Amino acid sequence: MANAIEVPTWLEWAREIQALAQTGKRYALNDFQTERYDRLEEIAAEIVAGANGLEAESIARDFKAQTGYATPRIDVRGAVFHDNKLLMVRERLDGGWTMPGGWADVGDVPSQAAEREVWEEAGFRVKARKVVGVYDANRVEGWISLYHSYKLVFLCEIVGGEASPSNETSEVSFFGAGEIPSNLSVERTPPRIIRDAFRVLEEPDCPTMFD
Who has greater pLDDT, 107 or 164? Predict the structure, then answer.
């Protein structure tokens, strides 16, 4: 796996403890068990807070809001090209550039989720044609998240629409391989998936990238 980074041990512990507690509460048989899992969530929050100088109480509240069997979250992205240039949008939240995309919703078909995100964030109607890659989003350069997630990137073809920012994006533009902005929103689009997208553009028969 290219450009892998080492996840800090404290984060691996916190993630596992939180996931065990979340899943445990889903199948708890009585209040006694639920209380024990609540305490495990608090310990996971204390680990994160201690490593980052954050407030454990707010992290614990976020952990407790997660319910059901704990699984990785799914982020979808559209790799859209025009004249060999990659479509990117500028996020209002952090001012960074990213390939359009976001969290998949429950009930989404993955490819259709990516198509919808491109429409909503950039104004283009697209059709997903190929999977560029399936990535462990927390083990690529530039970003480590509190929650584990996977990233699905689809090569998409423009079939309509026009460049149009949204309530989440302030700019929409296309960039060549040597023109990619330096201020990326790396949690959304790390450099690795940009390189892979251009590789698929140049080599349509290349295999899907995956971790």
Answer: 164
The model carries a pTM of 0.78
Phi, psi of 65 (to 5 degrees): -75, -15
Which domain-ending residue is among 65, 81, 112? 65
Phi, psi (rounded to 5 degrees) for 135? -125, 145
Place of tokens 């929103």: 185
- What is the CB neighbour count within 10 angstroms for residue 39? 11
How far apart CA 149 and CA 116 sit, in angstroms, is 20
Task: Give the chain's domain count.
Answer: 2
Asked whether the beta carbons of 162 and 124 are under 8 A apart, the reply is yes
Same domain for 51 and 98: no
pLDDT band at 150 (very low <50, low <70, confident <90, very high): very high
pLDDT (mean) for 155-177:
98
Helix (H) / strand (E) containing 12: helix 9-26
* Partner residues linked to 202 by β-bridges: none
Backbone φ and ψ for 70, nearest 5 degrees, come out as -75, 125
pLDDT at 6: 74
Q: How confident is the model at residue 1 (pLDDT cuts 50, 70, 90)?
A: very low
Say which residue the tokens 């990659």 belong to: 86
Q: Which of 19, 47, 65 is the last residue of a domain?
A: 65
